[in-house]
Each structure stands twice: as C-alpha cells, then as structure tokens.
Amino acid sequence: MNETQISMEELTQILEREKTEYDIARIVNPYACSTMRFKDGTMTAEGTCHHIWKHDHRCSNCFSRRACIQHKVLYKTEVMEGKSYRIKSTPYRVKTETGEVRNYVIESVRICELSRETVNSNIRTDLKHEATDYVFNEAMTGVIRMDADHNVVFANRQAKKMILRGGEQESFLLRTIVTNWLEGRQDRNAESLLFTQRYEYDHKDYFFDIQLIPFENTNGMELLIILHEHTDEEADRIANARDKDPLTGLYNGTGFYVAMERILRDNPDKQYIHLRLNVRNFTVINSVFGTRTGDALLMRLGELLGRMTEETGCACHFHSDQFGLLMENDYFDSSKLELDLGQIKSDTDSENFGLLFQVGIYRIEDHSMEPEVICDRASMALRHTKASGEVISTAVYHDDMTVQALTDNQLVSRFERAIARDEFHMFLQPQTDVEGNVKSAEALARWIRSDEGVIAPVLFIPGLEKNGMIYRMDRVIWEKAARQLKAWKGTEFQDISISVNISPIDITLIDIVDCFEKLTGKYEIDPGMLNIEITETAMVNNPDRLLHIVDQLHRRGFHVEIDDFGSGYSSLKMLKDLNADVLKIDRGFLQHTVHERKMKTILSSIIQMAHALGMHVITEGVETQEMVDMIYQMGCHTFQGFFFSRPLPVDEFEEKYAEQLSGRFPHNGR
Ligand code: C2E
Ligand code: CA
Ligand code: CA
Predict the structure, then answer these.
(1) Rounded to an integer, what distance in angstroms lies between the CA atom of residue 311 and that of residue 330?
(2) 500 CA from centroid of ligand 2 (Å)
(3) Rounded Cα distance, 351 and 348, in Å
(4) In the predicted model, is pLDDT for residue 152 greater than 90?
(5) pLDDT band at residue 389, thresholds of 50, 70 and 90?
(6) How does pLDDT run across 24-43, given as a tens digit for each residue?
(7) Do strands 5-7 and 83-95 pair parallel, antiparallel, or not at all (unpaired)?
C-alpha cells in the first residue's frame, strides 16, 4: 500500500484529518528519528520523535520504520504512566519540492486511561464460578471476552498463556495487545471475523488464528475472542510464506531485513559484512538458454549463499538476479567465493556469454544501523564495480559513495542548483618531473556542497554523462582553468599549463573547437597552455569525427592528450592515427605492470613508441617510489600521482608550489 507517491500538500491534508480522529497525529521521518513540519513549502525537522515516549535514544523497535520497510500500516502499543498509547504508523512516499521522494510516516495515536486496578478487577473472578467459564478455563484454545469498552472481562488460562507466555504477570497487557490486534484487523478488513495474527514476544514469532464472535448484551456489544495457536511447524510455514523466496529458499527482502536486524542486535561484539551480489548478463542467460537454465543458476547461487551463511548469518534473494548476505567478517573468504562462482559460471555459461558476478561489500560498523541503509550501501558499492575481466568484480563501500544515491531525477534538480550556486570547483593535480618539480597540472572537477562536503567525480560524472548534462559542467571547469591561466600570467606560475578533461559525450553535443577558441580569446591566453585530454574511448566511438576535431585543435595551437591509455581498447594504430601530443598512461596499467614481467615489456615499448611518434608521455597514478623508479627507467619522465601530490584546491596548489617556482621566476615574490 501507499506505494504511490503523494505530494507534501496531500500529506498535510491527511495529517489534518487524522488529527480530528486521534488524540495525537504527527509526521515523522523514522530514519532520522525526527518529527517533521511542513511550512512555507518545505518539510523541515522540528524535533526528536522518541521524546514523546520519554526515550532519550531511538526506539529499538520502531514500528514506523518497519511500516516503511514493509510498506504497510502497522500498530503498536506503548504503555506509559498508567496510560496506553495505541500508535498507528502509516507510511507514505512523499515527493518533496526538489522532486526527491522521501519516506514519511503519519503516526496517529489514541490514548487510553489504563488503571491497573480497574482492568484487573474487570477480569471478573466471580465469573469463574459459572459453568461456561469453568469450561473455557480448561479449554485448549484461548478465550477472551471483552466488553463494549474493550475491557477484558474474562480471559481463560490458555489465552493468558498464549499472550503473556508465562513471563508477564501484568494482565492489563492483555487488553492493550488484543485491542491492538483488533485495530490492525479493522483497518485491513473490517468485515473479517477470522484472521491470522503474528505476535512477537521476546524475539520469537508466534502465530494465532483468531475468531471474533460479537454478541449483544444489556451493556452493549461484547466480543468473544477465540485464539488458536499454530504449532511451531505451522508457524514456520506461515513465516516462510511471508519471509522466504520460494525459488531459492532464502529470505526475501522483508525476511532478510528482519533477520539481519535480529542477528546484529543479538551479536553486538561480532564484526559483520553485508554483501550484495548481482549477476551481470543474467538476461542474456535467460533469453539464450531459457528460463529453466536461468532458474537453475539462481538456485545454484541460492545454495551457495545459503551454505556460506549457514553458521553465522543469513542470505537473501531479493528478486531476479539480486542476492544479498550477511555474515561474520572472519568467515568471509573472497577467494573461495571467487572459486565457487567460477565453478557456477563454467557450469552455466558454456558458450561464454559473458556471465559475470558483481559484488558490493559493506563492512557494518554500527549494529544499530537500519538494515535498508546497510543494504543501500552495499548496492552503492556494487554500482562502483568495474568490469575487470575476472569472474567477479568487487567493490567495497566507502562514504564518498553515498552521494551516488542521487537518482537521475535528483541529479537533474541538484545539478541546476549546483550550477547556479557555483558548486563545481576546479582542483589541480601537479604533473612533475622525477624530483617533484611541477611542470603542469590537470584540472579535476569537485562538487562541493555545504551539507555533503567534497563529492568526487566518479559519483556524479557518469550520471551527468548519461543525461547529457556533462558538457555544462565541463564548460564550467574549462572556464575556470582558462581564468586561472590568465591570473597566473606574470607570476611564478606563468609557465604551468593546465590540462582539462573532455567527456566523450561532449564531442557529440557541442562544438569543442569553437568553445575552446572562444575561451582562449576571452581570457587572452596562449592555446598552448590549455591542454585538452581526450580518452581513448572517445576514439573508439567516433574515430572520424575525433580525428577531425584533433586536427582542428592542432591548427589553432592547442595540445591534445590521450587520456587513460591502457585502460580499455588501446590500440597502437590509434596512437599513430590520432596524432596527439601527449600520451597519458592509465593508473590501472601501471598497477598490473608492477607485478607482471610481460606487462613491463609492453609498457616500456609503448613509451618508446610514443617517443618515436613525437609524443610526450605522462604516467598517472604513481603512488610509490618503486613505481617512479620503474617508469623513469623506461623513459617516461613526467609523473602525476599521489606519490607527489593529490589533487588540491587552487589556493593549496599555489601555496605548495609557490616557493619551488619562485626559484625559477625570481623577480616575482609572492
Ligand atoms: P582521470 O582523468 O584519469 O583523472 C585522474 C584521476 O586519478 C583523478 O581522479 C585523480 O585524483 C586520480 N589519481 C591521480 N593520482 C592518483 C594516484 O596516485 N592513485 C590513485 N588511486 N588515484 C590517483 P578523480 O579526480 O577522482 O577523477 C576521476 C575521473 O573523473 C577522471 O579521471 C576523469 O575521467 C573524470 N573527471 C574529473 N574531472 C573531470 C571534468 O572536469 N570533466 C570530465 N568530463 N571528467 C572529469
Ligand atoms: Ca584526465
Ligand atoms: Ca586519466
């Protein structure tokens, strides 16, 4: 229910209606534990929701959050200071003014005076002497009689046993619990006099079939409630149907969240990871080999994940090719997983349709974190996996990825604001000689938001490329680079050129040559100082157009650099055809090279060949002295990497290199 989105105005209208029917009605954001107020077109947090329950920490058993997870109305009763508070939590998906969709809950509370004496005395002992009550008391089913005001007039031994489970002496709980069930049923289907009720007591689930028999008596409409408890096996079966996925026998999403929460709560001292697994090209397998093969593959995966979590965790088949598991960190063996998945691949994908597994990992630091946040983080990591050619590609979550949660919609609206507020900044990473003397710099974009801090480009550039807005951000960075070059004129930085990045998408959307020509004109800078980095991917996609552009740029005095060489489809022919000025060797290439002798030979030949073609070579991603030495010996003498410096904000860049450069430019002290 409530899957449809409503506007904030609609939510407020519902709230007003609830206020007339209940003692308290309020909007909460259960993930942030805050009460919300809608004012002047925006929703703002105004307080902490659990304070109303006199809790100074979040409620361990927050039904509003569960209501969001389960997408349904949930009921709960809090008993406090002689009153019972029946809370109805109704989840809504609400579209905010920025177009984002948020989960909010309306909590509607009914307050009842609850005097223990009256309730207890209402379980009239004198009735025990009546023959029918005597019989009821001995019966194996639970029997509860309620008067018109929902007071418990009678409860037989079995009913008390079923509800209080021998642990709770306070009979008045009977009333609150049973009323709770009745309310829950009323909202679902007021007519039904027979329903199945799940009851959680001390972390264990029980299931009752409940029959309601209303009968008229002089005091009004009373109610006889007959409870039949399911055996453990029946309860398991019901729980399974609700929480398990029939194909694999693993939990479904709902069951997984609940199980995950329980395991984390019960084992505060253990370290867990959550792993999300996705089958790449599953649809190909399904359509080429048929759904039977597809299902068999899912079952194999289910079996594997089930086995992995048998001892210490739980596993889940969310839907289609999406799996998840929770397990103790110490039990997780990634190479074993790789072997097992490799086996499954070779059994299934005999014709090599590129079946691959992507794995996102989140190491759980805080056991009280919501299961869905945990799952989101592993999914985010999963989206950051890169095809590596191996059977599995893995990525581990880190905080930067959070921004990735931006949906395309959110990105569009945030992007407009970011441009308007000038949130895209240019960082500079130096390109140095072997001694660390800066020669030039690469301009790298950073999105800096006041609330989220610095956002790295991998988090937003793919989205901007997808929706075609990348050229607008790129133009901002290009302009900043041009302006910087102008500002450096006449200073010790005047010989430092800046390279800017061009997305392959830019080439298809705007007239690059015209754009750069205008920039250098506007800022009166030498085109030879504003270098243009083009990735080899652009070359693969549209070689003729690219060749033409490079030629035009050359004619106007710009230098063109081939970026990320060795990361993808590098071809030596391309090197020759493209006629670029600089070859930038990709970081990934370098990483392989350190370990593999053959790669070293290849790298060193590429460097020689680039030189033979008259190109300058820059190696990216140098992180250690060992790498610097190796590359230097191969003949590449310009480096860009963390070993020398990370990308820096412009002022830090200037601060770091002013002294070094002032030696070169002695007449301009800073
Ligand atoms: P790129 O063009 O290959 O930029 C180099 C990336 O490598 C930068 O990441 C840089 O911070 C990182 N890097 C440099 N040295 C090291 C090192 O030693 N170790 C490691 N691990 N990393 C190193 P960054 O800034 O996160 O940028 C990532 C990519 O985003 C860039 O890769 C580029 O493709 C894209 N990008 C960045 N700024 C822009 C932009 O203004 N426009 C466009 N279209 N793309 C951009
Ligand atoms: Ca680059
Ligand atoms: Ca690069």
Answers:
(1) 12
(2) 7
(3) 9
(4) no
(5) low
(6) 999 998 878 889 988 887 88
(7) parallel
502: nearest Cα among 448, 423, 558: 558
Place of tokens 């093969």: 293
The letter for the amino acid at 73 is V
What amino acid occupies position 334? Answer: S
Residue 27 confidence (pLDDT): 94
Backbone angles phi, psi at 120, to 5 degrees: -65, -40
The DSSP secondary-structure symbol of 188 reads: H
Note the pLDDT of residue 408.
Answer: 54
Give the pLDDT of residue 78: 73
User: Tens of pLDDT along 635-645?
Assistant: 999 999 999 99
Tell me if 297 sits within 8 A of 344, measured CB to CB: yes
Structure-block tokens of residue 44: 């703002």
Q: What is the mean pLDDT of residues 582-596?
A: 77
Fill in the amino acid letter for 594.
V
* Separation of CA 621 and ligand 3 centre (Å): 8
Among candidate residues 412, 363, 356, 406, the one with its CA nearest the CA of residue 386: 356
For residues 313 and 310, give the distance between their C-alpha atoms in angstroms, rounded to a whole number. 6
Minimum CA distance residue for ligand 1 atom 27: 457
Q: Which residue has the tokens 């991917």?
A: 537
How many angstroms from the chain centroid is the CA of residue 347? 32
**Ligand (nearest to CA of 538):** 1
- Ligand 1 contacts (CB < 6 A) are 429, 444-445, 456-458, 461, 470, 474, 477, 501, 503, 563-564, 587, 620-623, 640-642, 647
Confidence category of residue 475, pLDDT binned at 50, 70, 90: very high
Indicate the range of 110-124, 239-253, 381-395 predicted with least confidence: 110-124
User: Which residues does 667 contact at the CB level (< 8 Å), separation at least 6?
Assistant: none
Identify the sign of the CA torsion 175, 178, 184, 185. negative
Q: Could you give the CA distance from residue 314 to residue 613 in angstroms, rounded to a whole number?
A: 58
**DSSP 8-state assignment for residue 251:** B
CA 635-638-644 angle, 5° bins = 125
Whether the Cβ atoms of residue 44 and residue 37 lie closer than 8 Å to each other? yes
Q: What is the DSSP string of 35-70?
A: EEEEETTEEEEEEEGGGGGT-SS--TT-HHHHHHHH
State the chain's mean pLDDT as an integer. Answer: 83
Alpha-carbon span 78 to 667, nearest angstrom: 77
Number of H helices, E strands in the chain: 24, 27
In one-letter notation, the amino acid at residue 146 is M
- Closest residue by Cα to residue 338 from 394, 397, 275: 394
Q: Which of 88, 87, 106 minimizes the C-alpha distance to 6?
A: 106
Q: What are phi and psi of 390, to 5 degrees?
A: -80, 170
Share of the chain above pLDDT 90, in %: 36
Please report the beta strands in 496-595, taking only residues with DSSP state E, as ranges in sequence order: 497-502, 530-535, 560-565, 582-585
Q: What is the pLDDT of residues 97-147, one digit of tens each?
A: 777 778 899 999 888 765 544 444 444 444 445 667 677 777 888 988 888
How many whole angstroms separate alpha carbon 123 and alpha carbon 146? 9
Q: Which ligand is nearest to the CA of 618?
A: 3
Query: Residue 644 CA: which ligand is closest?
Result: 1
